[in-house]
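Today's session is about reading a structure prediction critically. Students often jump straight to the picture, but the first step is always the sequence itself: look for stretches that repeat, for charged clusters, for runs of hydrophobic residues. Only then move on to the predicted structure, which in these notes is written as discrete structure tokens rather than atom positions. Here is the chain we will use throughout the hour.
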Amino acid sequence: RGRSKKMEYLEMCTRKNMLSVATGAGAIYLLYKTIRAGLNSPSFSLEPVSIASE
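Below is the predicted structure for this chain, in token form.
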């Protein structure tokens, strides 16, 4: 007979998939921080945009 929904869910939650999700979330977070820092910086500033101080 068919496998339970719980088993199918657990198979999707492999370490490789979890690592991919964590990596993607980290990339999205850094992109968000960069855009936010860029929007908060003064226009035409010669200073590099820093995301560490946010």
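Discussion point for the tutorial: DSSP finds two helices and no strands in the chain.
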